[in-house]
Amino acid sequence: MPLTQLMYDAVTPSRIPNPHLVRAVLVYVDGKYAWTDADRAMFPSAVKVYCAVLPDTDDGSVCDVETGALRPEDAVSWVKMRRTSLTNRLEHPATVYCSASSWATVRSAFVAAKVAEPEYLIAQWDGPPCIPPGAVGKQYSSTPGYDRAVVEDDWLHAHA
């Protein structure tokens, strides 16, 4: 069983509790909830994992597949773009964030496009902080203001 770390996610970063103690945060790089420099500075010791919500954003190592963000087919194009981008370092593998209920659809989009699947961060707010087989992390809890995920330690450190 791999070692894991807790990672926070919020559209309003100031709602994440105890920012100086947080070890990892998912930072939005674009869209309506893009984090500012001041937002990122609130978490001085945290590993920052950068997430895109728009399909043409050539930034980040995670893309968000949900209503108001990328569609499954957009995720395929985004992953291909990030894999070939000169700014994407190899130690930052492309990861798709999606709900457990849409995971099969997202996977099918990669298979249909004949594109190697990325890593997956799955949202399933059912309480237990356990990572499903085939994923690198699970967002397991949503509270008013922020979400919590458990992620594989090795995956997280590839983003440091």
Task: Describe, in short, the structure shown.
By secondary structure, the protein is an alpha/beta fold. The protein is built from 4 helices and 8 strands, in the order ββαββαβαβββα.
Explained architecture:
By secondary structure, the chain is of the alpha/beta class. Strands 1-2-3-4-5-6-7-8 form an eight-stranded mixed barrel. The model has no long low-confidence stretch (mean pLDDT 93).
Keywords:
160 residues; alpha/beta; 8 strands; globular; 4 helices; eight-stranded mixed barrel
Mean pLDDT value: 93
Global geometry: globular
Tell me the fraction of residues in β-strands, as a range.
25-35%
Q: Distance between the terminal alpha carbons, to the nearest Å? A: 22 Å
Total strands: 8
Low-confidence stretches: none
**Helical stretch count?**
4
Structural category is: alpha/beta
Written as H for each helix and E for each strand, in order along the chain, the element string is EEHEEHEHEEEH
Described by strand count, sense and barrel closure, the largest sheet is: 8 strands, mixed, barrel
Radius of gyration: 15 Å
Order of adjacent strands in the largest pleated sheet: 1-2-3-4-5-6-7-8
Helix content: 10-25%
Annotate the secondary structure layout:
Layout: E1 4-9, E2 24-28, H1 37-41, E3 47-52, E4 62-65, H2 72-84, E5 95-99, H3 103-113, E6 119-123, E7 137-143, E8 146-152, H4 153-157
Parallel strand pairs: 1-2, 2-3, 3-4, 4-5, 5-6, 6-7
Antiparallel strand pairs: 1-8, 7-8
Helix pairs in contact: 2-3
